[in-house]
Each structure stands twice: as C-alpha cells, then as structure tokens.
C-alpha cells in the first residue's frame, strides 16, 4: 500500500492536532486541562472535561487526472472533514470563558497550519518517517449540536476541511 | 468486434527526448527514459490541413490538399516543481488503454512552443503547447509502454 493511504492520512492529522493541543499554553483564568486534552476514540475512551475530541468524516474523492496518474502511481484527490469538538462542564462557573478560549485556540491551530506533511505509520512503527505527501488544511467551519444528554456537558463542534492526494502504487 | 469509447481515466501521455533524426525513433523503442506525465488535467491535439476545392465550369470537381499544418498538442498538468525532459525535440506518445485493448498515437519531433504557469488556490498548473512534425495513429503498439 502506498504511504498516502487513509490510515496514514488520519493518523497524521491525529498526531498533528494532539501535538498542537498538548502544546497550548492556557491563559491564567483557564480552569486547567486534565491529563488527556485530546480524545480520539469517543465514546469508548471516556472524556474528562475540559477537552477536545476528534473524528474523521470522509467526504469524497475526485477522479480528475488523466489515467488517474500521479507521480509514480495512481492518484485521486481526497477530501474529508476532521470533526473536532470542544467539551466543557457547566459546573465550572468559568465554563463559557474556557469554551471560548478553547474554540479560539483551535481556530488558531488551523490558521497556523497551511499543510501537514504525511507521516508513514505503517512502516517501522513507531519510529515513523515523514513522507512526501502534504495534507492541505483548507479551513474550519462550525456545526450546530444538540444539547447533550448529560445537562452538565456543553459542546462546540467544528469541521476542519482538508484535502490531499490519495495515492496507490 | 464492438468498439467502445475511451475516456480520460484511460489515457496516458508520455514523452522522451528525440533520439533519432527525422521521423524515426532510433532508440526509443527500448528507451527507459520515457516519462509519463503526472497529474494531467487536460490534453488535446489538433491535426489540420488545407483543402482547396477545384471547380470545373462552376461545379465542384475535386479536392486538392495544398497545405498541412504542424500537429498542435496542448497539455495542462499539476505543477510539482519537476520539469521532466529539458532536451528538445521530443517525441510524445498518447496511449489509451482499458487494460485489454490499447490505441497509441505517436507524435514525432515536437518542440515546446508555449510554457504557461498558473498559480491557483488549490493547485498550481503548467500548460504546455507542443508543435510536432507529424503523427502516427492509431496503432496497436507504442514505443514507450
């Protein structure tokens, strides 16, 4: 399988966002993150708020190149959403400020990443190597959410739009 | 035999430095230097000639070919920063294949007459125009695979 497969694409973005979120420096008023700031496998992995979560939503491929031919293999343009949510607890009297800062920090992370270089996690894991394919971060948009079944939980949901080249050997 | 229509996903454009003189492929038959152009968005070619109608007492009588234009090829491809083959002239080969049947168009001794770069939000592109002396088509086998 070519390094530019969807497993590597999604794993690369997971690692990129986890590193960025772990590197955030919250302001003085912020109530503080638990040990895990970014949760990937909800709901199997429990969520301790305040925290971010992520899922990948595949949109489409585009078959636009003659012979489906990329550099050294077949190529499709691949578009998907990285569905990222912000979770806070209403019990925290500061939760609205916390939430607004977390949303601003997420947008700042997206703003600072024009592209992310793909990492090949299928070869020599975990000492993975940087690949040659770029994942382009196209932007971020908000999505309305329903009130959580737990009245303590408040949530903001965003979709990070990205595209890259899905390659085959 | 029933012929089917080919489309873009079955095409492949390759080029190689012209190694022979005139219209011949001197070494290209086994040449490893044939480069398939990647990320091709558009490809077209035009073959044109001038035909004059000769009249006989005011009535069309026969046609006479009086001029043949060089073959014009246009290709637009995504810009990767790699230029490919710098030596001109080149031979180009357009192959269409559905995996079972193939057709080849071979364009001889082409020079690149236009090289146009466009920057865009999602994909930079290069548009090349080639002028070839002539072409051989459509054949069942090609030179560049």
Question: What keyword list fits this structure?
Answer:
heterodimer, A: alpha+beta, six-stranded mixed β-sheet, 6 strands, elongated, B: mainly beta, two-stranded antiparallel ribbon
Mean pLDDT of chain B: 85
> What pattern of helices and strands is seen along the backbone of chain A?
HEEEHEEE
Q: How many strand elements of chain A?
A: 6
CATH fold assignment of chain A? STM4215-like
Considering residues with a beta carbon less than 8 A from a beta carbon on another chain, report the largest interface and each chain's count: A-B, 13 and 17 residues
- The total of helices of chain B stands at 0
Characterise the protein shown here.
The complex is a heterodimer of chains A (169) and B (145). By secondary structure, chain A is of the alpha+beta class. Chain A has one domain (6-26, 49-168): STM4215-like, CATH 3.30.2000. Chain A contains two helices and six strands; from the N terminus they run αβββαβββ. In chain A, strand 4 and strand 5 (129-143) form a beta hairpin. Chain A is elongated, with a radius of gyration of 18 Å. Chain B has one domain. Chain B contains no helices and ten strands. Chain B has strands at 11-17, 35-36, 40-46, 49-56, 59-68, 71-78, 90-97, 102-118, 125-132, 134-139. In chain B, strand 7 and strand 8 form a beta hairpin. Chain B is globular, with a radius of gyration of 18 Å. In chain B, 25% of the residues are buried. Chain A binds chain B through residues 63-72, 75, 136, 163, and chain B through 8-13, 36-41, 43, 78, 80, 82, 122.
How do the strands and helices of this protein lay out in sequence?
The complex is a heterodimer of chains A (169) and B (145).
Chain A: H1 6-22, E1 38-39, E2 51-62, E3 74-89, H2 95-111, E4 115-120, E5 129-143, E6 153-168
Parallel strand pairs in A: 1-2
Antiparallel strand pairs in A: 2-3, 3-6, 4-5, 5-6
Chain B: E1 11-17, E2 35-36, E3 40-46, E4 49-56, E5 59-68, E6 71-78, E7 90-97, E8 102-118, E9 125-132, E10 134-139
């Amino acid at each position: 399988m070519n390094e530019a497969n969807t497993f590597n694409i999604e794993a690369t973005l997971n690692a990129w966002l986890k590193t960025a979120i772990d590197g955030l420096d919250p302001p003085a008023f912020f109530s503080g993150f638990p040990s895990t700031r970014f949760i990937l496998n909800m709901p199997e992995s429990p969520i301790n708020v305040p925290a971010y979560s992520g899922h990948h939503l595949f949109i489409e491929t585009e078959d636009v190149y003659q012979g489906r031919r990329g550099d050294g293999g077949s190529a499709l343009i691949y578009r998907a959403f990285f569905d990222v949510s912000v979770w806070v607890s209403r019990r925290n009297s500061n939760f609205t400020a916390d939430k607004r800062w977390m949303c601003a920090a997420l947008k700042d992370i997206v703003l600072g990443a024009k592209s992310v270089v793909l990492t090949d996690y299928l070869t020599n894991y975990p000492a993975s190597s940087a690949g040659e394919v770029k994942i382009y971060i196209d932007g971020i948009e908000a999505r309305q959410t329903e009130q959580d079944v737990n009245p303590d939980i408040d949530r903001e949901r965003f979709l990070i739009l990205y595209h890259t080249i899905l390659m085959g050997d | 035999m029933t012929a089917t229509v080919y489309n873009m996903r079955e095409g492949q454009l390759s080029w190689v430095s012209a190694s022979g003189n005139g219209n011949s492929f001197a070494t290209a038959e086994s040449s490893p230097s044939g480069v398939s152009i990647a990320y091709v968005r558009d490809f077209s070619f035009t073959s044109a000639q001038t035909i004059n109608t000769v009249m006989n007492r005011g009535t069309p009588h026969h046609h006479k070919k009086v001029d043949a234009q060089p073959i014009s090829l246009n290709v637009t491809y995504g810009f990767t920063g790699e230029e490919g083959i710098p030596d001109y002239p080149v031979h180009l080969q357009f192959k269409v294949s559905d995996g079972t049947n193939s057709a080849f168009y071979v364009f001889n001794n082409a020079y690149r007459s236009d090289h146009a770069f466009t920057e865009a939000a999602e994909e930079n592109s290069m548009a090349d125009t080639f002028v070839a002396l002539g072409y051989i088509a459509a054949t069942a086998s090609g030179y560049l695979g």
